[in-house]
Amino acid sequence: MFDYLIVGAGFAGSVLAERLARGAGKRVLLVDKRMHIGGNAYDFYNEHGILVHRYGPHIFHTNSAEVFDYLSRFTAWREYQHRVKASVDGMLVPIPINLDTVNQLYGLQLDPAGMKEFLAQVAEPVSPLVTSEDVVVSGMGRELYEKFFRGYTRKQWGLDPSELDAQVTARVPLRVNRDCRYFTDSFQAMPFAGYTRMFENMLDHPNIKLMLNVDFREIGGQVKYQEIIFTGPVDEYFDHRFGKLPYRSLEFRHETHHRPDFQGHAVINYPNDYAFTRVTEFKYLTGQVHPSTSVVYEYPKAEGDPYYPIPRPANADLYRRYKELAAATEGVHFVGRLATYKYYNMDQVVAQALQLFGRLTGLKRQEATSLRS
């Protein structure tokens, strides 16, 4: 008899497995349909001995000391400030757009005050802000929108920004200074030995039984458990009773090049050219020293593994029906990006999992993260 069957060995499932086993003495069966733990954060050494992220780059960043301290039990960290370039008009310029981006594009020498004046002149205010196009055009005008956002969004989502909720492009900041970091969080780092090693340390407990390459429905009648924690697609759990929730998927093309460096940057975005959206060179992320280098090209597509919930009003309405059904389903707890149909960063998923652990055990947040055995 297990206390909990946890479906999905990504961040949400693994954090809850660790907390329930080590922090509450519960017996946990953790299952995943893939052949590995770590979910989309899974990394591994390829045939050339280079540490790569199978499902595209995962950069850890958070403003939560609680989340960072919790994960620090299972990994040392490599400090890393993520910087991204965009290929626009034959140049590589900083993204998110900042003072250097505009000066380089237009051959200007603006200071922060001049940048504010420039943006005020080109902005086309829209009210209310309903779509992703509204957000960008209101903040930086139509020309920068066309150069950086429209093509990228069309590739990424298969939809024009005018068809997507404002939240999509609202995630990307606009800076009037020269800060070229992609994130500005208090804690920015990469697991020193990789994400997979961190997950292995997290799940190393005698109360955790791990089963891979198995669908949770296949073991339903063979294993006894009291409650379920489900981190997969919520519509899948209910056999798509109200229809399928739309997701955007990705195809990854990995390459290894037998030279020390390939593109000179960690990530280069391609808003307008080519079918792929970005190229990541992993050695910049991991700090690995190796005579060769590996990169991955990302090709968005409509079908495949679910990665990104598509933020449109009709999809939100459909999810609301599943949310109500989930809330009425006793003994099953839904947590994580797929189970709650929302795009979360990794730290947000960890925080959500810790919050659920607190509810399950009646512990306050600080107590929930501090219990060890």
TrEMBL record:
Transmembrane domains' residue ranges: none
GO MF annotation terms: UDP-galactopyranose mutase activity
Organism phylogeny: Bacteria, Pseudomonadati, Verrucomicrobiota, Verrucomicrobiia, Verrucomicrobiales
Keyword Signal: no
EC number of the protein: 5.4.99.9
UDP-galactopyranose mutase C-terminal domain location: 147-343
Chain's gene name: glf
Organism listed in the record: Luteolibacter rhizosphaerae
Class of this enzyme: isomerase
Cofactor section: FAD
Acetylation listed as a keyword: no
Similarity field: Belongs to the UDP-galactopyranose/dTDP-fucopyranose mutase family.
Pfam family name, one: GLF
Assigned keywords, A-Z: FAD, Flavoprotein, Isomerase
Protein name: UDP-galactopyranose mutase
InterPro entries, per the entry: UDP-GALP_mutase, UDP-GalPyranose_mutase_C
Highest taxon of source: Bacteria
